[in-house]
Design a protein that fits this description.
binds flavin mononucleotide; about 170 residues; NADH Oxidase; alpha+beta; 5 helices
Length: about 170
């Protein structure tokens, strides 16, 4: 699938079949996550792949009301920022690095025919604390987002055109 087609067909998937995701595909998705631009190439992220169903259930509780899709997912990928790698003069850039990594993984999954939904964690302080505790993350590691991944129960590869001309300005506002 071409990149533009992956973007046009992607929609959040919240209900999954029982089919697992191969290690080969997991690695392709993670590689995509690690292939985006990164501020001063500091690559300020780390990932936790969660395949254990019980842990996925606990993670869905820790991440609050809207993290239900993790319960039926084949796996979750917890995207974390690594503050030890952050730039002292612009520490917040880790958030952008983590966001790019997450979106790259969403598109890679779509390309592989795997559905996903992005579940926000940071900057909701309660979610950050709960997830950090559950996953026993080191001090410098901040949970940013979670991807729930799996094969869609109701696959929908219809292309959407989400262009909004009134959001775009050429040469002047
Ligand atoms: C930062 C961020 C946080 C999100 N958090 C959640 C969430 O907690 N639960 C959820 O079901 N979807 C979540 N989503 C998915 C959005 O609801 C979804 O992308 C949006 O409604 C547009 O739908 P689409 O992805 O099908 O185009 C999140 C998306 C982003 C980018």
């Amino acid at each position: 699938m071409e990149t533009l087609k992956a973007m046009a067909t992607r929609k959040s998937v919240r209900e999954f079949t029982d089919e697992g995701i191969t290690f080969e595909d997991i690695k392709k998705i993670l590689t995509a996550g690690m292939s985006g631009p990164s501020c001063m190439n500091k690559r300020m992220w780390s990932f936790v792949v969660i395949r254990n169903k019980e842990l996925l259930g606990k993670l869905s509780v820790a991440n609050g009301l809207y993290a239900g899709p993790l319960r039926g997912a084949a796996l979750g990928i917890l995207v974390c920022g690594d503050l030890e790698r952050a730039l002292p003069e612009a520490p917040e850039y880790w958030v952008i690095d983590a966001s790019i990594a997450t979106q790259n993984m969403v598109l890679a999954a779509q390309d592989l025919g795997i559905g996903s939904v992005w579940l926000g964690c940071w900057p909701c302080e309660d979610r950050v604390q709960e997830v950090k505790e559950l996953m026993a993350l080191p001090e410098n590691i901040v949970p940013h987002s979670i991807l729930a991944l799996g094969y869609a129960k109701e696959p929908d590869n219809e292309e959407r055109d989400l262009y909004e001309s009134d959001r775009v300005h050429f040469d002047e506002w």
